Amino acid sequence: MSSDPGPQTPVIRIGIAGLGTATKAMLPAFLKHPGIVITAAASLDEEQLRNFKMDFPVETYRNVKEMCSSPDVDAVYIATPTQFHTEHVMLAASAKKHMILEKPIAVSLEEGLQMIAAAEAGGVTLVVGHSHSFDPPILKMREVLESGRIGRFRMAHTWCYTDWMYRPRMREELQTELGGGVTFRQGSHQFDIIRLVGGGKVRSIRASTGVWDSQRRTEGSHVVFFEFEDGASATAVYNGYDHFHTTEWTNGIGEWGEQVKPGGYASNRKTIRALDTEQEQHLKSRRSGYSGKQSMIYADAGLQQPFFGLTVVSGERGDIRQTPEGLLVYGEEGIEQLQLPNDIDGRDMVVEEFYQSVIHGKRPVHDGRWGLANLEICLAALQSSREKKEIELNYQVAVK
Does the pLDDT at position 3 exceed 50? Predict the structure, then answer.
């Protein structure tokens, strides 16, 4: 359980739905925050629940509905598979529980709208989290643009080349209709970054997605072109097929600031191709499930800033790019180096935005409608690729 917050700090009691990789990554941020106390967990996996109970003296449940009925839970962190998000949001909202929801919000706009309506009717906060637009360098890019020092936002490009397609996957992660593939799973991060630095109001997109491996029939790549309402533009490029990696461009630093240790060329691709489906499922389950405090995923605190690929942003009078320490701003008169704190990461910012909304009533940027706008771009990218045409957007919202 989180450390004692003290009598002066209002507390949110969190119940965790799902004890997989996302939860292992979010736990350090929950435990660090003085206003968060973990009081419950729900999972279908009895072994994961036993392991969690050994480390944290919390209530444990085999289903989310029962956990939402607990009077000792004020809010729910929903880290279950995407296809269950709607059901679990509806349960939490009907029980008047605030929510942090993993991305993507859903796999259809209809489901997303239903979830938003439920949260609003219940009078509860819904924050769509784990977005890399929470990363301190991305937030700082937005701040630089808003300051006017390099003029209006005009262009952004983000590139990410990884081994995503050949990390051990559950079946649903390789099924587009269930929210699988890189456009839903990783593009949602890229699209969020672009929307945040650009102000949020995207007019249309044109995209091409790729399914290049007949054994893994979901999107493993995409190129997406954005046009904003004010004429600014952006591109998002992702390739998850485990050849070139953008860590070669980022000093070997990965998406959470960690120093990536090379495992040999295409090591994950070679490993996965040597496994049958059941062996891969077993490996994924063993790696992703909570197995004790040692399995929690920490950012490399105190070392460097996170790199979700490489992002470069342009204003009318300058450009911005990331560095391991922060940002470089290329202005009209010279280059300015901005150093950022190295003791917080994007997950910390997710928790803080949620806390400020629940306790102090501050409207979150990454609310349900922001998450819906992000989902709209994921779906539009897939549609644009199928139909080979530009798709105009209807649910975009401005940065608050």
Answer: no
